[in-house]
Design goal:
The chain is built from 10 helices and 34 strands. With 450 residues, it is an alpha/beta fold. The chain has a 20-stranded parallel β-sheet that branches. The model has no long low-confidence stretch (mean pLDDT 97). It binds uridine-diphosphate-N-acetylglucosamine (UD1) and magnesium ion. Magnesium ion binds next to loops.
């Protein structure tokens, strides 16, 4: 069978006022990626011939974010969802395939469901496929009125519905797939005789039925079609996204002691037999190999963690960190832009930034790489098998050779040759009996005061 071409339209011209944000609604993030990009990535898997985003206010922001991945059309003024689709005619007038219409603020719709709609249109006699769902509370949603053959007869907007219509529990998610050869003809039949004076896309169903065309419904789970109109909706969508990710990783062989307290990014990659304790957050760009343990209360972003490594509790890995195998990063350790070799340990209370550390080294408690002079950042290089004593400050740029030992409490400002001992602290003095004499003197002073 010859599969028709696909065009995707994403509607995003609404004002999004309830977000109370200077950022366009569809550019707010879910799991570290904008709602719009979630849709862009999923629709790309359907291999559409063309993608169009309809925008209104804050067009520039969307244009920068989309960066050529889709055509952008300005809808001004915004006269309703039907009008928004109609203005894409300038790009699609000669298009002969199927048109999938999505809402930019319904970001969790899966690629599987999108494909199901397209397949239904291609494989049945339906001319329009609408994505329906049954929410817990149908308030605000258009209701899907079915005819006695289970075909879709009309979509009735909540604002215009009678009490009888409002008792229908099957609702319109907003997503629709239509044969592109009839879409603009049908849209020309819309009017704005309704409570808000808008051209409703949903009225296309009535027009199609009047012309003897067939409209069908495909159903989705309510979580998948949650619409984001406010910060509170955004938090609900984030919760659904995180729940899906947690389940995914557990299914793939990752143990989560307290799943509800672990937060992933859209691109987090985790191997097998990884144990993750409670209260761990993954920012974007994290890749974890097999057999890694992430102890409680860690914040990890932009880090690659080699197999057998152990992180935390209370560790922070910042972008451009690359840990080899069996590396140990202990509590209250912060690392950024650093490459660390196999079997190296940084067990307590350290800041390591802009560094390169060889394998088998031991970085003592309280070691600080002083990488910044207030203007520029500098590198610290530590060779393999080195031992950095506790509470050392390594003032970059500095190079500590392989096998070298830095004495505890040192401030290292120049190169340490391999296998040397470097010490920069004041030599210890001891005054025998001084403490006893001191106490006697103090007690005498107190007596005089009394
Ligand atoms: C719409 C549907 C309703 C459905 C609900 C699902 C219509 C008439 N109603 O209602 O049946 O149950 O979504 O969430 O379609 N937009 C434009 N240009 C416009 C108006 C809107 O691009 O002129 C965009 C918005 O940015 C948004 C989408 O279209 O992405 C939906 O618009 P919105 O105003 O949120 O429609 P609802 O009232 O939620
Ligand atoms: Mg809406």
């Amino acid at each position: 069978m010859n599969i028709p071409d696909l065009a995707i339209i994403i509607l995003a011209a609404g004002k999004g006022t309830r977000m109370k944000s200077s950022k366009h609604k569809v550019l707010h993030n879910l799991g570290g990626k904008s709602m719009l990009q979630h849709l862009m990535d999923k629709t790309a898997l359907l291999k559409p011939l063309t993608k169009i985003i309809v925008v209104g206010a804050q067009k520039d922001q969307v244009e920068i974010a989309v960066n050529g991945q889709a055509d952008i059309i300005m809808q001004e003024p915004q006269l309703g969802t039907g009008h928004a689709v109609n203005i894409t005619k300038e790009k699609l007038c000669d298009f002969k395939g199927n048109v999938l219409i999505l809402f930019g603020d319904v970001p969790l719709l899966s690629q599987v469901t999108m494909q199901k709609m397209v397949d239904n249109l291609n494989q049945t006699d339906a001319d329009i496929v609408v994505l329906g769902f049954t929410p817990e509370d149908a308030k605000g949603y258009g209701r899907l009125k079915l005819n006695n053959k289970k075909g879709l007869e009309a979509i009735i907007e909540d604002k215009d519905a009678s009490n009888k219509d409002r008792s229908i529990s099957l609702c319109n998610s907003g997503a629709m797939c239509i044969d592109g050869t009839i879409i603009f003809d049908l849209l020309s039949g819309l009017d704005n005789n309704n409570s808000v004076g808008e051209y409703y896309l949903t009225d296309i169903i009535k027009v199609a039925n009047l012309r003897g065309l067939k409209c069908a419904v495909v159903e989705a789970k309510a979580e998948e079609v949650i619409g984001v109109n406010s910060r509170s909706d955004l938090a609900k969508a984030e919760a659904f996204f995180q729940e899906e990710r947690r389940q995914h990783f557990m299914d793939e062989g990752v143990s989560l002691t307290d799943p509800a307290s672990v937060f992933f990014s859209y691109d987090t990659k985790i191997g097998k037999d990884v144990n993750i304790g409670p209260n761990v957050t993954f920012g974007i760009g994290v890749q974890i190999s097999d057999d890694v343990t992430i102890n409680p209360y860690c914040h990890i972003e932009g880090a690659i963690i080699g197999s057998g490594s152990s992180i935390g509790p209370f560790a922070r890995l910042r972008p451009a960190v690359e840990l080899g195998e069996r590396v140990k990063v202990g509590n209250f350790v912060e690392i950024k832009k650093t490459k660390i070799g196999n079997d190296t340990k940084i067990s307590h209370l350290s800041y390591i930034g802009d560094a390169k550390i060889g394998k088998n080294s031991n970085i003592g408690a309280g070691t600080i790489t002083c990488n910044y002079d207030g203007y520029l950042k500098y590198q610290t290089v530590i060779g393999e098998g080195a031992f950095i004593g506790s509470n050392s400050a390594l003032v970059a740029p500095v190079n500590i050779g392989a096998g070298a030992i830095v004495g505890a409490g040192s401030v290292i400002t120049s190169i340490v040759e391999k296998n040397s001992l470097a010490l920069s602290r004041v030599k210890q003095r001891e005054l025998g009996g001084w403490a006893t004499k001191f106490r006697q003197r103090k007690q005498h002073e107190i007596k005089i005061k009394e």
